[in-house]
Design brief:
The complex is a heterodimer of chains A (489) and B (375).
Chain A (H helix, E strand, L loop, with lengths): L3 E5 L9 E7 L6 E2 L4 E6 L4 E5 L4 E6 L6 E3 L3 E6 L18 H4 L3 H7 L2 H8 L4 H14 L3 H10 L42 H10 L17 H9 L21 E2 L6 E2 L4 H16 L2 E9 L1 H12 L10 H15 L5 E4 L4 E4 L5 E7 L2 E3 L2 E2 L7 H17 L4 H4 L4 E4 L19 E5 L3 E7 L2 E15 L5 H16 L3 H5 L1
Parallel strand pairs in A: 14-17, 17-18
Antiparallel strand pairs in A: 1-8, 2-4, 2-7, 3-6, 4-5, 6-8, 9-10, 11-20, 12-13, 14-15, 14-16, 18-20, 19-20
Chain B lengths: L11 E2 L23 H26 L13 H8 L7 E3 L5 H6 L4 H8 L9 H4 L10 H15 L14 E6 L6 H12 L4 E7 L2 E2 L2 E2 L10 H5 L4 E5 L3 H16 L5 E6 L18 H8 L3 H11 L5 H24 L18 H15 L8
Classes of the chains: A alpha+beta (489), B alpha/beta (375).
Chain lengths: 489, 375
């Protein structure tokens, strides 16, 4: 019987994912023997000659010279029993000897998982089918399907500096999410951390068990502890497992097809929780102010032409941010947080200025750290970076924690104003409406001026109407006449 | 060959030239005097078999059966010559290229590949062969070897006055390892403690791609002299000289006179590992120069010249080599992945609460998947 064996591109180095076919040393019809030079390939590391793993006759070359082939993809087919009788090609697909035909050590190994399958089969029957299906891919004689299945089995390992190929790593599905820590419930397994990090945690009064580790093998790093320390007041906004998953996926359509149910998680869940906490614990008051911002628009135009600002995008949001910072400096009592548990008001000596951002993944409120210390230019840079990171979905949990006051730029969506809900843990939020050219009484005459609306919501537990009004009025004064900033600076 | 520095041939002990002629040495000829034609044939046979195994393993790596392979190609004389000196009670500490020494310690060669297929951390029981596991951390085992040797001394197993009862340690490492702090520490400890250990450095001229000239300005053997250890440079492609010098060194160590540093000057004919491409850092001319000094062909020339290598014997060895290669291939292809929980088995010699907890956790973790698969 003719019997066909296929040879897959091996990992000739350590962790290579692909190689180029340089020169075939054999042709279809050639008789080959074990270890005879088959093909010369070039990997990221070296030029390598691959020896033939079979005795027989070459029946197919599955890749051409110059092709780049992924590790695990078949490159040649050898008839190892050429004197046998001819039979239809499909026969090779049903080769009953999967282990022998496994072309690479990796595939051979991955197909054999006796321990895992034995233990998994006790609780589910799927394991048996998935296990046995793996080796059959090696017997496939079609280039495409063989390529896909074999490539999927790759380890995803890469050379340093080459990056992970998208989709090269395959994760097994888990039955359950929860797996209690080593040692079982109640018994705490020691958290992995270096002694200086343990010391830091002790000094900060942080329980290492509550810190999310980011180091290799679950080690808690210094950065983890510092981040955890920073994230305290804004914990409701901190990350949840699965935050990296878009929440709109994984919905299920109802039986009648008239609705889709999506589990509430990730950003949606976080937003909902934050809004409920905020709306039902902090009594909101909102005040409004309509302002002539023509001078602000002139300033924006001037800054756009300024060479010092050539590297950043200058927008009216930058000026309103600066105006709010100046106003907060005059009324620092608004930059505060209500501590219900301790019955204390926490006045912050720093301003982490939150910017509410609508991103493809939902509403997020990253903040600019220590915004009160930034020059106008640096503030512009931070604002730009934050916006870019938010759009790219690359915001770190730390960037969203420990905000002290927030701006929501509803004007960007063409809205005049709104009654914003406070970011939990903060006492004030400023809504910045759309800027429109409107008829406006200016120096005793009706003129066409740039006008906008500002709305300030605040937590009435610690901010009274008078304080809120003065803060909002100060923001308005700077927006109306940016030169006022010089007076207060 | 450089005129001076760590790649010169100054002071090299040689008993068989690269053209296969026997030459005499004032000191070391005596230590090879007991070698018969049978012994030399056995050397040739062993070197040939080890190379056949080495070649097969390289092919298997290229065919995707092994994750990595480390060739001993070109270093067979240093390994087989020194390995044949060892007695049952002597203990050898290899690095990871000592397949020839493993062969002389009766380690089944194909089993070594379990390490390189990622199935085992060590594929033999060290105490059964008095051959320690391969050490991949460069130079780390020189300290273990020194400690073991100090133990032999404290157990009264060295310098007993009865040469047949004495034993010693031999530790194999490369030129690159001499740049490691561990090796410097081991040499110092061995020296001041008069430990019965032979430091057998195979200077194959490359620490991966780095030339020995980037590791030292003087002969590597001088490192021994620096801490008061007698040192010898030997032609590592000359199996007879390698045997003779090691014989002297082991007798020296066993008799209680302390450590010896042997530098076997050789050439790594292959790549550092199958992941390496030596054409990027050395010349074809260099490789040809050293191919002419091949350890196996020079012994073959000698044996043929003295009429001690019959065609029948050559055919017999060729068949044995082919059979070994075939057995190696079959063994590797037959191996299946061991149960993943095995990785917890040899962490400690005795039961350990933390490891047990981790094993139990991992077992539950592994069972928590809805499908079986690669880990």
């Amino acid at each position: 019987m003719p019997k066909f064996e296929q040879f897959a591109m091996p990992d000739a180095g350590e962790g290579l994912t692909e190689a180029d076919i340089v020169t075939w040393r054999v042709a279809v019809g050639d008789t080959v023997e074990i270890n005879q030079p088959l093909v010369e390939i070039e990997t990221a590391k070296s030029l390598v000659e691959l020896p033939c793993p079979y005795d027989g006759v070459v029946t197919k070359l599955l890749a051409a010279e110059g092709d780049t082939v992924e590790v695990g993809v078949f490159i040649v087919e050898v008839d190892v029993d050429p004197d046998g009788e001819a039979q239809p090609e499909e026969a090779s697909e049903q080769s009953p000897e999967p282990v022998q035909s496994a072309p690479s050590g990796r595939e051979d190994l991955s197909s054999d998982s006796s321990a895992a399958s034995a233990s998994a089969s006790s609780s589910g029957s799927t394991s048996a089918t998935s296990t046995s299906s793996t080796p059959s891919s090696t017997g496939s004689s079609t280039y495409g399907s063989g390529a896909a299945s074999a490539a999927d089995e790759g380890s995803g390992a890469v050379l340093v500096g080459y990056g992970v190929k998208p989709g090269s790593a395959k994760r097994r599905a888990r039955k359950a999410d929860s797996l209690e820590p080593i040692g079982g419930e109640g018994e705490e397994y020691p958290v992995l951390a270096k002694p200086p990090v343990r010391k830091l945690a002790r000094e900060l009064g942080i329980d290492l068990n509550s810190v999310t580790p980011s180091g290799p093998g679950g080690i808690v790093t210094r950065g983890d502890v510092e981040q955890h320390a920073k994230a305290t007041s804004a914990k409701a906004l901190a990350t949840y497992p699965g935050d990296d998953q878009p929440w709109l996926e994984s919905g299920t359509v109802s039986e009648d097809g008239r609705s889709t149910r999506v589990p509430v998680k990730s950003v949606r869940k976080r937003t909902a929780e934050a809004m409920v906490i905020s709306a039902f614990t902090a009594p909101h008051v909102t005040e409004f102010l309509t302002v002539d911002v023509t001078e602000t628009m002139n300033l924006v135009s001037r800054l756009k032409a300024d060479r010092d600002f050539a590297d950043v995008r200058v927008t009216p949001l930058l000026i309103v941010a600066k105006a709010l910072l100046l106003a907060v400096r005059r009324h620092p009592e608004v930059n505060a947080s209500w501590d219900e548990a301790n019955q204390e008001i926490v006045y912050k000596h720093y301003v982490n200025l939150g910017i509410a951002a609508q991103t493809p993944r939902g509403l997020v409120v990253p903040n600019i750290k220590h915004a009160h210390r930034l020059s106008l230019h640096n503030l512009a840079v931070e604002l730009q970076d934050l916006t870019a990171e938010a759009r790219a979905g690359k915001l770190s949990p730390a960037s969203m924690g420990d905000g002290t006051i927030t701006i929501t730029n509803v004007g960007a969506l063409g809205i005049d104003t709104g009654t914003p809900i406070l970011n939990p843990g903060e006492a004030a939020i400023l809504a910045f409406g759309a800027i429109r050219q409107q008829p406006w009484v200016h120096e005793g005459e009706i003129q066409i001026r740039w006008v906008t609306q500002l709305a300030l919501s605040f937590d009435h537990r610690l901010v009274d109407g008078g304080l809120g009004a003065r803060l909002l009025a100060d923001v308005g004064r700077v927006m109306n006449d940016p030169a006022q900033g010089l007076v207060w600076a | 060959m450089d005129a001076q520095g760590p790649l010169s041939d100054e002071g090299l002990v040689q008993l068989l030239t690269h053209t296969g002629e026997r030459v005499e040495h004032d000191t070391y000829s005596a230590y090879a005097a007991d070698l018969t034609a049978d012994d030399l044939r056995a050397f040739w046979r062993d070197m040939t078999l080890v190379r056949a195994f080495d070649d097969e393993a390289t092919s298997l790596q290229r065919q995707g059966e092994l994750g990595l392979w480390v060739q001993s190609w070109g270093q067979e004389a240093a390994q087989i010559g020194s390995g044949h000196v060892l007695r049952g009670d002597d203990f050898a500490f290899p690095s990871y290229r000592e397949h020839g020494v493993a062969f002389t310690r009766d380690v089944d060669l194909p089993s070594i590949l379990k390490i390189f297929r990622g199935l085992e951390h060590g594929a033999w029981v060290p105490s059964e062969h008095n051959f320690h596991l391969y050490t991949l951390v460069i130079g780390a085992h020189t300290l273990h070897a020194t400690g073991y040797a100090m133990g032999l001394d404290r157990d009264g197993l060295t310098g007993t006055g009865d040469p047949d009862r004495d034993s010693a340690v031999i530790c194999y490492f490369g030129d690159g390892a001499t740049s490691q702090g561990d090796v410097a520490e081991a040499l110092t400890f061995a020296s001041v403690n008069n430990a019965p250990v032979v430091f057998f450095c195979q200077n194959n001229q490359f620490a991966i791609s780095e030339s020995t000239t980037r590791q030292s300005k003087v002969a590597l053997a001088d490192r021994g002299k620096g801490v008061g250890i007698p040192s010898v440079r030997v032609d590592g492609n000359d199996v007879i000289a390698s045997y003779a010098v090691t014989q002297w060194a082991m007798q020296h160590a066993r008799s209680g006179q302390g450590p010896v540093f042997v530098e076997a000057f050789t050439y790594r004919m292959g790549a550092h590992t199958t992941s390496d491409d030596p054409t990027r850092y050395r010349s074809k001319a260099d490789e040809e120069y050293w191919a002419e000094r091949d350890p196996i062909s020079r012994l073959r020339t000698h044996l043929e010249a003295i009429g001690e290598l019959s065609e029948e014997y050559q055919a017999e060895v060729a068949a044995a080599a082919k059979a070994l290669a075939a057995r190696t291939r079959e063994a590797v292809r037959s191996w299946v992945r061991p149960p993943v929980l095995d990785m917890f088995d040899h962490v400690y010699a005795e039961p350990h609460a933390t490891v047990e907890a981790e094993r139990a956790w991992f077992e539950r973790y592994d069972n928590s998947f809805t499908e079986a698969g690669a880990h």
